[in-house]
C-alpha cells in the first residue's frame, strides 16, 4: 500500500488528518530539548529528560504514519465556572487514539509496527511537522491550518519505506498574541517554562496554586495560549467524533471519587484527586474574596 492509500484509510477509520514522516534520527530537536532542560524549564517533570528516536520505538523503522484528531468541543462551560482545558472535556484521549491507531494498522495490514500517542518519549510534534501536518507555533503547540491547535497526535512506526510528505513553512509571522496573553508569562520565544505554566501547575505540580495563579480560574490545565491564537479563532471548529462526547463537564468536582473518575475514563485520572479538589477550592475562594 502506498502513502496516499494509507492516508485515505486513516481518514476512513476516523482521523481528521494524516501525513507520512521519515524515521530519520532527530538531531536539532535533541539539541533544542537539551537547551530547554538545561534551563530547568521542565520543572519537576524528570520523566521529560528522556527522549528517543523513531528507531528506538521500532527496530528498522523507516517511516512514521502521523495522525491527528480534532478535539475542539461543541460544548462550553458555564460562565464563571472554574475552567477545565478543552482536551479534558471528554474521555481520556490516550484510549481513543490508541484504539484508532491499532485499527488503522490492521486495515493497512502492517506486520511490524509500534504505536505512540503521547505515551512514549518521542517528539510527537516534531514528527507531525515532518509529516507536513503543521508547524510548531510560538505557544509550543502544533498548528494545523485546517484545524488550528486543538488536535491530538498519534503515530504508527513502521519498517515500510513510504514516500514522506513535504513540511509546511511556519506561519506565525509577526504574531505574538500567545506570548502577550499567557496569564503567567510562561511562554518564551519558541519554548515554554513549565514552572510558570498553569497546565503543569494545576495538574502535575505538588505545590498548591498561589492566590495569583488561582485568580485565573483554571482548575485543570489551561487553554489561554490556544484561545489567543488567530489560527484557532479562524479555523478551530467542533469535532464530530462520538468518542469525544463530554464526560467531565457532568462531574461535580467537590464530591468526586476515584472510582467515578475511572468509570468515566476521565483525563482527571492523570492528576491527583486531592490536588484537583484543592485547585477548585482555591479558585472558588479566590472568586468569593475578590
Ligand atoms: S497553558 Fe496557559 S499558562 Fe501555560 S503557556 Fe499556555 S497560556 Fe501560559
Ligand atoms: S498566537 Fe500567534 S504567535 Fe502564538 S502560536 Fe498563534 S499564530 Fe503563532
Structure in words:
It is a single chain. The protein is of the alpha+beta class and about 290 residues long. The chain has one domain. It is built from 12 helices and 10 strands. It has a 4-stranded antiparallel beta sheet with strand order 1-2-7-4, with helices on both faces. The mean pLDDT is about 95. The site of one iron/sulfur cluster has 13 residues, from helix 6 and helix 10.
Q: Any idea what the radius of gyration is?
A: 19 Å
Spatial gap, N to C terminus: 61 Å
Biggest sheet descriptor = 4 strands, antiparallel
Number of helices: 12
Bound molecules: iron/sulfur cluster
Spans of at least 5 consecutive residues with low confidence: none
Tell me the strand order in the biggest sheet. 1-2-7-4
Percentage of β-strand residues: 5-15%
Q: Helices and strands: which structural class?
A: alpha+beta
Secondary-structure element string: HEHHEEHEHEEEHEEHHEHHHH
Helix content: 25-40%
Overall mean pLDDT: 95
Number of strands: 10
Overall tally of structural domains: 1
- What form results from the Cα inertia axes? globular
Amino acid at each position: 500500500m502506498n502513502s496516499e492509500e494509507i492516508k485515505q484509510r486513516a481518514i476512513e477509520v476516523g482521523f481528521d488528518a494524516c501525513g507520512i514522516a521519515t524515521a530519520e534520527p532527530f538531531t536539532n530537536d535533541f539539541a533544542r530539548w537539551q537547551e530547554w532542560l538545561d534551563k530547568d524549564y521542565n520543572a519537576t517533570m524528570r520523566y521529560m529528560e528522556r527522549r528517543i528516536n523513531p528507531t528506538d520505538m521500532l527496530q528498522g523503522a523507516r517511516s512514521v504514519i502521523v495522525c491527528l484528531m480534532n478535539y475542539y468541543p461543541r460544548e462550553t462551560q458555564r460562565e464563571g465556572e472554574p475552567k477545565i482545558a478543552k482536551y479534558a472535556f471528554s474521555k481520556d484521549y490516550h484510549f481513543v487514539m490508541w484504539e484508532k491507531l491499532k485499527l488503522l494498522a490492521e486495515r493497512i495490514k502492517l506486520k511490524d509496527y509500534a504505536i505512540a500517542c503521547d505515551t512514549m518519549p518521542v517528539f510527537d510534534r516534531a514528527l507531525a511537522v515532518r509529516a507536513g501536518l503543521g508547524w510548531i507555533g510560538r505557544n509550543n503547540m502544533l498548528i494545523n491550518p485546517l484545524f488550528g491547535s486543538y488536535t491530538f497526535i498519534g503515530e504508527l512506526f513502521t519498517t515500510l519505506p513510504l514516500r514522506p510528505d513535504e513540511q509546511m513553512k511556519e506561519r506565525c509571522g509577526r504574531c505574538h498574541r500567545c506570548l502577550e496573553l499567557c496569564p503567567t508569562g510562561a511562554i518564551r520565544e519558541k519554548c515554554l517554562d513549565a514552572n510558570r505554566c498553569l497546565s503543569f501547575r494545576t495538574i502535575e505540580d505538588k505545590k498548591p496554586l498561589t492566590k495569583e495563579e488561582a485568580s485565573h480560574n483554571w482548575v485543570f490545565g489551561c487553554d489561554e495560549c490556544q484561545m489567543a491564537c488567530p489560527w484557532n479563532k479562524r479555523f478551530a471548529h467542533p469535532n464530530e467524533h462520538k468518542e469525544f462526547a463530554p464526560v467531565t463537564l457532568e462531574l461535580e468536582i467537590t464530591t468526586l471519587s476515584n472510582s467515578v473518575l475511572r468509570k468515566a475514563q476521565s483525563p482527571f485520572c492523570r492528576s491527583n484527586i486531592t490536588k484537583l479538589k484543592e485547585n477548585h477550592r482555591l479558585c472558588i475562594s479566590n472568586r468569593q474574596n475578590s
